Amino acid sequence: MKFEHKYLIPESKFPKIKNAMLPYLTHDENAVRNGNTGYTVRSIYFDTPQLRYYFEKIEGMKIRKKIRIRVYDDYTEEKVAFLEIKRKNENYVSKNRSCVLFQNLDKFFSASKVENLILPAEANVSRIDDAKQFLFYFKHENLRPILLITYEREPFVSRFDGNLRITFDKNLRFLATTNYQRIFEESKLQSVLKSSSICSGLA
C-alpha cells in the first residue's frame, strides 16, 4: 500500500513548479524506454448499473475502489491492455494489475479460465490472481464500461528515493461510452480542466 496526494496546478504556474522540482527528479524509465519524456494514458472505467463506484467517490467514502482497463499511447496489433483494480483507503492506495493483449479482451471477458490469456512474461501466480479478481468483479457486480479518460503524462521518480514517484498530467479529456473498444478514440473527446494540470505524488 502506498501514500498518494494529488494537486491541481494552474497552467500558468506549471512551468515554474516543474522547474523547481526537476533538480530532485529523473524521468521514469518507462518514458525513457520509449524515447520520450512522457506518454498518453487511456483508461476505460467500469461501474455497476447503479453507478455504485461513482457515488462512493462523490459521497466521500474513505474505502473504495476503481476498476478500469488502461492502455498507453496509440493502437498496435501487439498493444497490451492492463486490467487494474485500484483500492483507496483515505490517502493510501494499492493496486492489483494484470495484462492481456488488447485484441484478446473479448476472449477475457467471456472466459471461464484466464491463465492462457495472461501475457507469458506476466503469468505468475500473483498476476493470474489479479486477473481472476478483475473478472470476478466484472461478472459478480455486472460491471459495464461508462467513461473514457485520456491525458498526457510526464512521469518522474526521485533521484534520492526510488519509492517516490511524481507525475504531471495535462490535456485531460473524456468521453462517456459503453464500449471499451473505443479506448483509442480521439475525435469525439471533450476537454476538461483546460487551464490546469494535475500533479500526483506517490510514495
What do you see in this structure?
The model has no long low-confidence stretch (mean pLDDT 92). 17% of the residues are buried. This protein has 203 residues and is an alpha+beta fold. It is 20% helix and 43% strand. The protein contains five helices and ten strands; from the N terminus they run βαβαβαβββααββββ.
Q: What brief labels describe this structure?
A:
mRNA Triphosphatase Cet1, Chain A, alpha+beta, 5 helices, eight-stranded antiparallel beta barrel, 203 residues, single chain
Total domain count: 1
What is the name of the CATH architecture? Alpha-Beta Barrel
In CATH terms, the superfamily is VTC, catalytic tunnel domain
Strand order of the largest sheet: 1-6-5-4-3-7-8-10
Q: Report, as a whole number of angstroms, the end-to-end distance.
A: 9 Å
Structural class: alpha+beta
The main pleated sheet reads as: 8 strands, antiparallel, barrel
DSSP E strands, number: 10
CA gyration radius, whole angstroms: 17 Å
Strand content: 35-45%
